Amino acid sequence: MVFLLALLPAAAHADIQEYKLANGLKIVVQEDHRSPVVVTQVWYRAGSLDEYNGTTGVAHVLEHMMFKGTKKVPAGQFSRLIASAGGRENAFTANDHTVYFQQLEKSRLELALRLEADRMANLLLTDKDYAKEIRVVMEERRWRTEDKPQALVYEQFQAAAYQAHPYGRPVIGWMNDLEQMTVADARDWYRRWYEPNNATLVVVGDVSPKVVLQLATKYFGPLKSHPLPVRKAQIEPLQHGERRVTVQAQAKLPYVLLGYHVPVLYDPEREWEPYALEILSGVLDGNASARLNQNLVRRDRIAIDVSTGYEMVQRGGTTMFQLDGTPSEGVPVADLENAILGEIEQLKENGVTADELLRVKAQVIAADVYQRDSMFYQAMKIGNLETAGLSWRLLKDYPARLQAVTAEQVQAVARKYLTTDNLTVATLDPQPIDEHAPRHKEIPHGHN
Length: 448
Fold this sequence. Notes:
- With 448 residues, the protein is of the alpha+beta class.
- It has 16 helices and 11 strands.
- The protein has helices at residues 2-7, 58-65, 77-84, 109-122, 127-146, 149-161, 175-180, 183-193, 209-219, 273-285, 291-299, 333-350, 354-371, 375-387, 394-403, 407-417; strands at 16-20, 26-31, 37-44, 88-93, 98-105, 199-205, 243-250, 255-262, 303-309, 319-327, 423-431.
- The strands form 2 sheets. Strands 1-2-6-3-5-4 form a 6-stranded mixed sheet, sandwiched between helices. A 5-stranded mixed sheet has the order 7-11-8-10-9, with helices on both faces.
- The radius of gyration is 23 Å and the shape is globular.
């Protein structure tokens, strides 16, 4: 454990610099001189969390439209300019944010910043481009969700688990909303949220922070900020009993997804529960020797795979502790569900061992250390924290916070949150596969 902590570069966070332009744009720069590369990411604090009924999916639609050009950079030119400079670029939309990124040779940093600043303020949203792109988004929904049985289960699971909170709506949007959406909806979204005072520029790589600041000031500095809409806190009411949903879809095997409402990180100085939940996830699923894999896949052979998921950083103020799995052929899905619940009850009753706790801590910290080899991952961690309203400074405390978690705390969060009244279960009921049914094609170079 001490060895793993020693692997963390002593100056890993000393070389992070933070700036703020007069128009409100936040800039975070992390130096990493191991290779002559730079990663740039522009994070907008706007995602499906900020949508309202009737316009679900508009954040993702606008992400697609951001590649349709400005007066200075016509449609398609953005990607061509980055590619001709030897770089790669893309974007993605999530519940909490929309992110645009490039990875380039360090001398091409100015190109990325010039292009991003231009489309932050000068995007052309034409009826013609919109009409074409909304069809692409609808096809993406068909391919990514409607043709994927597990994705359908997840969508219905979220809708059942969150009955008031926006996390219950799919990021890609409901199909009816996409069909009714207009270019005016996309323009309205762009006008409301695509402002320098609602964005964070993260730059990681072989760069000088002063040079990054100079270039950011040159290109983003002239952009004017505007007041942002008031965001009202949206809280999911307390769940008062188990919820269940069954999804019938063409598939070979059944599948089950279970989830419990759990807290996210609000006050890192005082909170320990999110860190204990992170360790709990590792105890159940961390690697081949974790409980679910060891007992249900390898020993009892009732599951092909089983896993857990927990994200402690969420701008929406809530999240789910999830467990999912696919039963082995011939095993009823109810047997797998009962086995997963049985493992949870055993942990609540008997806790975790000292050896188990040490292994999970070492494994989680090691994963964090090794992922720091990726400039893109470093930028993602910074942007995610900043956009959620936290700070990149939490990164340096993360290993110590995990190390401080006790076995009693892991057992305590399991007992407190992993209860029947707080449980939502979604099950895939596989239907015969029609080999002649039309399948939708993957979107080739679609932006996520």
